[in-house]
Design goal:
272 residues, mainly beta, four-stranded antiparallel β-sheet, 14% helix
């Protein structure tokens, strides 16, 4: 579709998603948080050590301090294992990005209430269970270096410089213009006292919720939430080429991306 209108959450700020890593008797452990979110299907899920928007850690709403935040905001350069800017849901958020970090810490960092040190093997096992490790933790874990070695594997189908050139070309050639308009002008959508929804019941709807939690920086708040109209499918095709696993990725454009195009999975859609 060459053009369309839709609601989108304007949050052009950079949050912090960070996981602390500590060595216990030669075994790396990750500090994971059991965190509840108002949109979780099952309440509590495993989350990064720090999962905070700029408004959260800037205490704009007068909430409590975010635990372990300084481990990431003032990390020593030699302790930083991964530090990557990544967008968040470019079809739902306008120009929102997160700083995904993994930082090595010393013995002074202890697990507080609602936190636990888990080995990478334990976390990998939990990744295979539905609704246990949240999306933000998964994005940070994907930034970890791959310490495994592909013994006897073949060469990559495309050299790194070729891949970078391909992405740059797609960003240069693919024009996306997202112009903010009023909700009343959003064609194909309607607004009621309870929601903003698509006229044909497609995509998602925006609803308001009131939340209370004694485990968060603020004990109670209200906010809009985007509620999908059906389950989505995110699929990645993998094929061995000369013994080396390759993933089929797509250069995908979204209206909310800062850099127009980003690499996405083979299939990303709502089948309905």
């Amino acid at each position: 579709m060459p053009a369309w209108s839709q609601p989108i959450i304007s949050q052009p700020e950079t949050g912090i998603l960070g996981i602390a890593l500590r060595d216990f008797d030669g075994v790396p452990h990750l500090l994971m948080q059991a965190k509840s979110e108002p949109g979780n299907v099952n309440g509590v899920q495993l989350s990064p050590t720090v999962q905070a928007t700029k408004s959260n850690y800037g205490r704009v709403h007068g909430g409590a301090e975010v635990p372990y935040l300084e481990l990431f905001r003032h990390a020593e350069p030699g302790a930083v294992i991964a530090d990557v800017l990544q967008s968040e849901q470019g079809s739902w958020f306008l120009h929102k990005r997160n700083r995904n970090m993994v930082v090595e810490v010393g013995p002074g960092a202890e697990a507080g209430e609602d936190f636990a040190w888990l080995t990478l093997g334990q976390v990998n096992a939990l990744l295979r269970r539905a609704n246990l490790v949240n999306m933000d933790a998964r994005t940070v874990l994907s930034c970890l270096p791959d310490w495994r070695r592909q013994a006897g594997a073949g060469r990559a189908l495309h050299p790194d410089r070729e891949i970078r050139s391909w992405i740059t070309r797609r960003r240069a050639e693919h024009e996306v213009e997202a112009v903010p308009i009023g909700l009343a002008e959003t064609d194909g959508w309607h607004r009621t006292e309870d929601e903003v929804a698509h006229d044909q019941g497609l995509h998602f709807r925006v609803v308001g919720v009131e939340v209370s939690s004694h485990r968060r920086e603020v004990p109670a708040w209200s906010q809009p939430l985007l509620e999908p109209t059906g389950p989505g499918v995110v699929a990645l095709f993998v094929r061995r080429i000369e013994g080396l696993p390759h993933a089929l990725v797509r250069a995908r454009a979204e209206p909310g991306f800062t850099d127009v195009v980003e690499l996405g999975p083979t299939v990303q859609c709502t089948p309905r």
